[in-house]
Design brief:
207 residues; mainly beta; 15-stranded antiparallel beta sheet; 1 helix
Length: 207
């Protein structure tokens, strides 16, 4: 790993590069991270490639640290990014993520593939309040982005997901409601019947 950092007054510029970096199941033989920090703001841009597993992508984001109501506050804006393989490319976008010690407000965080009509959307608030909910919506979304984890233990998983997951009071006495359908499922090229996952669980009452 090569790191180059330059400090000039109240600003910092950093470049990180590597020709071989392991990150879980990924072997990144082309990894670069560029960033700058000034006036409590950070800009980051990263690109990576795992040629062995044909995975590549670029991620860009801006972060701003401030104080609100006496608490440290972090605002993260995910700039247009993407990750893909030889068959598909998923784009990543968000209207913003606001965080402090009491809540996380996720605004339209999307991972999507317009060509195949795939969409994963996370939106809502994670907090201690029972009136706040965090929502996950799935539309024809492929399992491929998560398949790397299964391949580590010898399983090649394919399939599509549709449905939703709602998490209420995510940071205390959490309640989860889920209704997710999985179809076109194959494990190591063997077809499996369609599945439907439905759940209502109250962690505060353990039922």
């Amino acid at each position: 790993v090569e790191i180059d950092a330059t400090n000039s007054g109240d600003s910092l510029v950093m470049n990180v590069g590597s020709s071989e970096l392991w990150a879980g199941a990924l072997r990144l033989n082309d990894f670069n991270l560029h960033g700058g920090a000034k006036d409590n703001a950070v800009d980051l841009y990263g690109q990576f490639a795992d040629t062995l597993n044909s995975v590549r992508g670029n991620i860009a984001a801006k972060a701003l640290v401030s104080r609100r109501n006496g608490m440290r506050h972090l605002r993260v804006d995910v700039l247009p990014s993407r990750v893909g393989n030889n068959e598909n490319v998923w784009r990543i976008s968000s209207a913003g993520i606001d965080m402090d010690s009491t809540r996380v407000d996720v605004q339209d965080l999307r991972i999507y593939n317009a060509r195949e009509g795939q969409d994963l959307l996370i939106d809502g608030v994670a907090s201690h309040s029972k009136t706040d909910s965090l929502h996950l919506y799935l539309k024809n979304f492929s399992l491929a982005p998560f398949a790397q984890f299964a391949e580590r233990i010898g399983y090649r998983v394919e399939g599509r997901t549709n449905g939703y997951v709602t998490v209420r009071s995510a940071l205390k006495d959490t309640r989860i409601e889920a209704n997710v359908k999985l179809d076109s499922i194959h494990v190591n090229a063997l077809p499996l019947p369609d599945l439907k996952l439905s759940s209502r669980w109250d962690f505060g009452r353990s039922r």
